[in-house]
Design a protein that fits this description.
Blueprint (H helix, E strand, L loop, with lengths): L1 H9 L4 E7 L5 E7 H7 L2 E4 L14 H7 L6 E13 L7 E9 L10 H14 L2 E15 L27 H5 L2 H14 L3 E6 L5 E6 L4 H21 L2 E4 L13 E9 L16 H17 L25 E3 L6 E3 L9 E3 L8 H18 L23 H9 L2 H7 L1 H19 L4 H7 L4
Parallel strand pairs: 1-5, 11-12
Antiparallel strand pairs: 1-2, 3-4, 4-5, 6-8, 6-9, 6-10, 7-8, 10-13, 12-13
Helix pairs in contact: 4-9, 6-7, 7-9, 8-9, 10-12, 11-12
Pfam families: Gln-synt_C
Keywords: Ligase, Magnesium
Family: Belongs to the glutamine synthetase family.
Length: 448
């Protein structure tokens, strides 16, 4: 707290946003004067915020009180001094501080997404391993739209025109939104977010930001903050930035590709490479674990009904957990690299996923393969779309059923977390079913 207090004083911070991530990835917490923040050294929040749905609802009462204390008590949220960021868009000098969640005995709250990632990293540390990740975030820029029944449209760029057609990797198309991206880069630099490349993706006004590789917890924090930052930069320029997995009909979906590798914690050498530079058994086991368990952990990477609209054959979104070198039709791509930089790109998570949980799940699947010595299938040469084995669940309902029946996920993530997560997503799915879509009105209204 002394380091944190010095940081706040040096920047003359007057307000602190005390944040935790809920299951969806929404920032929940309190805004408090800096004097009160330093006096209380954290905040108290109802533990129930960790079981809140994206619509603001909660799981059914019977399960709610089975997973939480019947008295609906508060949890203790303690600030992490390594997860402190300025809020450059605020009118007053403001900081946002990410907190960890504990019960009154000082035990980490199992329902906390950040605690789940820390738990997975501890598993690696016990083996003397150090995972490294690099997320890639895709998103769309759209016009502001007040009516959710209306389709989203591309925004107006500097030229005064809307973008039309596919503009993959177009510099000029990306430059249409230079003022927005200049603010984004400036704000990210102020916050110390380690972003790297900006590219124009395949979709109309679809972009991608890459993060430099590093510690998984630090990168998950940065993705959490980056989403807030980009949304604020977009709103400043009268544009909307969305991380929905599939926001626009007939356009590509948005992914959060996760590049992951594992180092020997003592030497810093990659455990994915043998001395001669060839693929190590641990590397192959890591892939084997991802192939075996990603279909069970898929709701942590594709958490919404909309997430499954990304998974279409013959698109850049994979429909499998095959693997191959430099093969983008595979769910698990191995980029061409030096042996020390050998890594796996998990192409299955959507941009709508909670970064803490997507990274935790992806690393946990690989870890299970390493400790259980699971062998992968043969690498794919050519189009993986033609392979029919290792199929993924087709719907959120199927995926949730597989997740709740996976003994390994319950063992390592905990019964309360798996049960609570599945329950939250089922409530969201039921809410979705209650809404009549425009497709139903268009094709069924006068035809059936």
């Amino acid at each position: 707290m002394k380091d944190l207090e010095s940081w706040l004083k040096e920047r003359r911070i007057t307000e602190v946003e005390c944040l935790v991530s809920d299951i969806t990835g929404i920032a929940r917490g309190k805004i408090t004067p800096v004097s009160k923040f330093m006096a209380e050294k954290g905040m108290r929040l109802p533990e129930s915020v960790l079981l809140q749905t994206v619509t603001g609802d909660y799981v059914e009462d019977e399960l709610y009180y089975a997973l939480l204390d019947p008295a609906d008590i508060d949890m203790l949220c303690r600030p992490d001094s390594s997860a402190v960021y300025p809020v450059p868009w605020a009118l007053e000098p403001t900081a946002q501080v990410i907190h960890d969640c504990y019960d009154k005995m000082g035990n980490p709250i199992e329902l906390s997404c950040r605690n789940q990632l820390k738990k997975v990293l501890a598993l690696y540390a016990e083996q003397g391993w150090k995972p490294v990740v690099a997320p890639e975030m895709e998103f769309y820029l759209t016009k502001r739209c007040e009516d959710p029944d209306l389709p989203l449209l591309p925004p107006i760029g500097r030229s005064g025109r809307q973008e039309t057609g596919r503009q993959s990797f177009s510099i000029d198309a990306a430059n249409e939104f230079d003022p927005l991206f200049e603010d984004m880069y400036d704000w990210c630099e102020v916050q110390g977010l380690d972003i790297d490349t900006l590219i124009h993706e395949e979709g109309t006004a679809q972009m991608e930001i890459n993060f430099r590789h590093g510690d998984p917890l630090m990168l998950a924090d940065q993705v959490f903050v980056f989403k807030r930052t980009l949304r604020e930069a977009a709103l400043k320029h009268d544009v909307v930035a969305t991380f929905m997995a599939k926001p626009i009909t007939n356009e590509p979906g948005s992914a959060m590709h996760i590049h992951q590798s594992v180092l020997d914690a003592a030497t810093g050498k990659s455990v994915f490479a043998n001395e001669d530079g060839s693929m190590s058994q641990l590397f192959l086991h890591h892939i084997g674990g991802m192939q075996r368990f990603i279909p069970e952990a898929l709701p942590l990477m594709a958490p919404n009904v909309n997430s499954f609209r990304r998974f279409l054959p013959d698109t850049s979104a994979p429909v499998n957990v095959e693997w191959g070198v430099e093969n983008r039709t595979c769910g698990l791509r191995v980029p061409d690299s030096s042996p020390q930089n050998r890594r796996i790109e998990n192409r299955l998570p959507g941009a709508d996923a909670n970064a803490y949980l997507a990274i935790a799940a992806s690393l946990l699947c690989g870890y299970l393969g390493m400790v259980q010595q699971l062998n992968p299938s043969a690498p794919v040469q050519g189009r993986a779309f033609e392979r029919r084995n290792l199929r993924l669940p087709f719907t959120l309902e199927q995926a949730l059923e597989r997740m709740e029946n996976c003994s390994e996920l319950e063992q390592y993530m905990g019964h309360r977390f798996v049960t609570g997560y599945v329950a939250v997503k089922r409530v969201e799915n039921e809410n979705f079913k209650k809404v009549i879509s425009s497709w139903e009105r268009e094709f069924l209204l006068l035809s059936v």
